[in-house]
Specification:
about 400 residues; alpha/beta; six-stranded parallel sheet; three-stranded antiparallel sheet; 13 strands; elongated
């Protein structure tokens, strides 16, 4: 295999065809690749849209580098007359197909679920879309922000007296990518047991709807809406952001034990021992008073001094770190959350590593994120068995 190694992982021997674009689908396929699957990504000649999103490193999009490690890359114009035959052979080769087109697109390409099953009865098709394969909204287009708005997440994010707001990252796409990977793993396990494939239907809005947790079940069971709470916890107190002498720090003292420990630590035994505050509801009702006491204490100390007092007491806290600060932190280094990878043309790449740590089969970056079409000769020659002349003809015709 070009640019890779023979490291064994839990999915070694599983072949994945990645037809997806942007974030959720590519992330799902990347996770499978991290677990050792042989992943072939197909994108159009010249590269998918993500390759043309800045910022850039030596002319290549760093956005693209986030979701394509441990993959082999081949280009294909799916509208070219030769494309259906090529896709058919790739589907016959694959164990898993990952796609995130709008519902109906694969059918128009002639490789919908029913056709895939005819070609390869053991195939697992992971179909990721905005609203799923069914329902009145299934044909709607979607990007991350639409999912945040539609799922209820946006209405729950922001200050109580402000406007709803997006999160600071593409949380819907990332969550959907991980949910899709879980679905794929379940389908692969079932396939290993029975020899039968299945369709895994993943919707971004479903994925985010399922994360709404206490806000969702409060509505379902009690018919009540929990209002936006900003940096506070929606159910208990005191939990908030405080201004120390040298910057903001978040302190969580919302359980009864943490509350009592916190207020004894700041010499407010009168509050720690007040029987009214045994219940979360009462602490929540008086959160302004309780937070003012913590805020007055925090304002006289640096964040480091606060940490020195809270850590031995077992009170959860975190200075609000910039991305640069957290990336340079000893904890990130100890957890090996930044991987340095040598790319054959781009030099050393510093990429986020997998958050999944496994003792027996540790995840490694076996192959740097590829350039568009980097592995065309291997995919079309070794995987599909085309001759050098046939591959050259496909290039001349603009098919690859």
């Amino acid at each position: 295999m070009p640019g890779g190694d023979d490291t064994q992982g839990p999915l070694s021997g599983i072949r994945v065809l990645d037809l997806s674009r942007f974030i959720a689908g590519p992330l799902c396929a990347q996770i499978l690749g991290d677990f050792g699957a042989e992943v072939v990504k197909i994108e159009r000649p010249g590269g998918e849209d993500s390759r043309h999103h800045g910022p850039y490193h030596r002319g290549e999009s760093v956005y693209m580098m986030l979701y394509h490690r441990n993959k082999y890359d081949a280009t294909l114009d799916t509208r070219h007359p030769r494309a259906p035959a090529i896709l058919t052979r790739l589907i016959e080769w694959a164990d898993v197909v990952v796609e995130n087109f709008r519902p109906g697109t694969l059918e128009r390409m002639g490789i919908g679920w029913n056709r895939m099953r005819e070609l390869n009865p053991a195939i697992v098709l992971v179909s990721i879309s905005g609203f799923g394969q069914t329902g009145p909204d299934s044909s709607r287009a979607l990007f991350d922000a639409i999912s945040q708005a539609q799922s209820g997440l946006m209405s729950a994010t922001g200050d109580p007296d402000g406007a709803p707001t997006l999160t600071g990252t593409y949380i819907a796409d990332y969550t959907t990518g991980y949910v899709a990977a879980i679905g794929a793993l379940g389908a692969i396990l079932q396939r290993e047991r029975t020899g039968e494939g299945q369709l895994v239907d993943i919707a971004s809005v479903d994925s985010m709807f399922a994360t709404m947790g206490i806000r969702l079940i409060t509505q379902l069971m009690l018919g009540e809406e929990i209002p936006r709470s900003g940096s506070r916890d929606p159910l208990t107190a005191p939990v908030n952001l405080y201004q120390a002498a040298d910057g903001p720090i978040y302190i969580q003292a919302g359980t009864r034990t943490l509350f009592e420990t916190m207020f004894r630590l700041i010499d407010r035994d009168d509050l720690a021992e007040n029987p009214r505050y045994q219940r979360a509801e009462s602490r929540k009702a008086d959160q302004d008073l309780l937070e003012a006491a913590i805020g007055a204490w925090a304002a006289t100390r640096t964040r480091s001094e606060i940490a020195d007092e809270l850590r031995p007491a077992g009170i959860p806290y975190a200075p609000v770190a910039s991305i640069a600060e957290v990336a340079a932190s000893p904890q990130v280094a100890a957890r090996e959350m930044i991987a340095e990878v040598e790319h054959p043309t781009l030099g050393t790449l510093r990429l986020p590593a997998s958050p999944i740590k496994m003792s027996a089969t540790p995840i490694r970056v076996r192959k740097a994120p590829p350039l568009a079409g980097e592995d065309n000769d291997w995919v079309y020659g070794t995987v599909l068995g085309l001759s050098t002349q046939e591959i050259q003809r496909l290039r001349e015709e603009g098919a690859i």
